[in-house]
Design brief:
heterodimer; A: mainly beta; five-stranded mixed beta sheet; four-stranded antiparallel beta sheet; 9 strands; 0% helix; globular; B: mainly beta; 11 strands
Chain lengths: 111, 115
């Protein structure tokens, strides 16, 4: 599996945009970028995924660089409930396969 | 409905006990997963079932025995566990085949303590 690199922790003020970066320089052509988050003591929650185009849903936006070697997850208006560990994972599509979680970024949203 | 349910929420068992963890989904997903998560660590895959057949076993000790009785249910049978097996056990499900969408949906987990 391709590896990802994320900052260990980040802070964000409530109401501001949270921009979480991820490096995945060894990503293969058939691998998607997936983002999950895990709020304390809960199961991981799927946020968004993309291949090469930018994606947006009701939770977040995903910006993938043209060379696909890095991406940024954007939470446009962070709230206290967005405090969680955010995982960036590259994942080959086409079959049921394992998610390999890295250490993720611990996002702390503050008042 | 994107809900995966797991029972029980908490389980305390002795090293000689036999217990089972249960997982259920009604999203029509044909792939189901067991993950183990130790405190302050990311989840680690244990097993994958695809179309009710075991497709991935991440070299898990035989004291953990998975079972997929039908496409909606996934069990994890536990026997002769060790204290170091204490962890949060997470179940997940996803579509399979050629659907084009493979995001996994996780349950809340079962917090297991082995005494």
């Amino acid at each position: 599996d391709a590896k990802t690199t994320q900052p260990t922790s980040m802070d964000c003020a409530e109401g501001r945009a949270a921009n979480l970066p991820c490096n995945h320089s060894t990503i293969s052509g058939n691998e998607y970028v997936y983002w999950y988050r895990q709020i304390h003591s809960q199961g991981p929650q799927y946020i968004i995924h993309g291949l090469k185009n930018n994606e947006t849903n009701e939770m977040a936006s995903l910006i993938i660089t043209e060379d696909r070697k890095s991406s940024t997850l954007i939470l446009p208006h962070a709230t206290l409930r967005d405090t969680a560990v955010y995982y960036c994972i590259v994942f080959p599509t086409g079959t049921a396969s394992k998610l390999t979680f890295g250490t993720g970024t611990r996002l702390q949203v503050t008042l | 409905d994107t809900e995966v349910t797991q029972t029980p929420k908490h389980l305390v068992m002795g090293m000689t006990n036999k217990k089972s963890l249960k997982c259920e989904q009604h999203m029509g997903h044909r792939a189901m997963y067991w993950y183990k998560q130790k405190a302050k660590k990311p989840p680690e895959l244990m097993f994958v079932y695809s179309y009710e057949k075991l497709s991935i076993n991440e070299s898990v000790p035989s004291r953990f025995s998975p079972e997929c009785p039908n496409s909606s249910l996934l069990n994890l049978h536990l026997h002769a566990l060790q204290p170091e097996d204490s962890a949060l056990y997470l179940c997940a499900s996803s579509q399979s085949g050629t659907s084009g969408r493979y995001e996994q949906y996780f349950g809340p987990g079962t917090r297991l303590t082995v005494t």
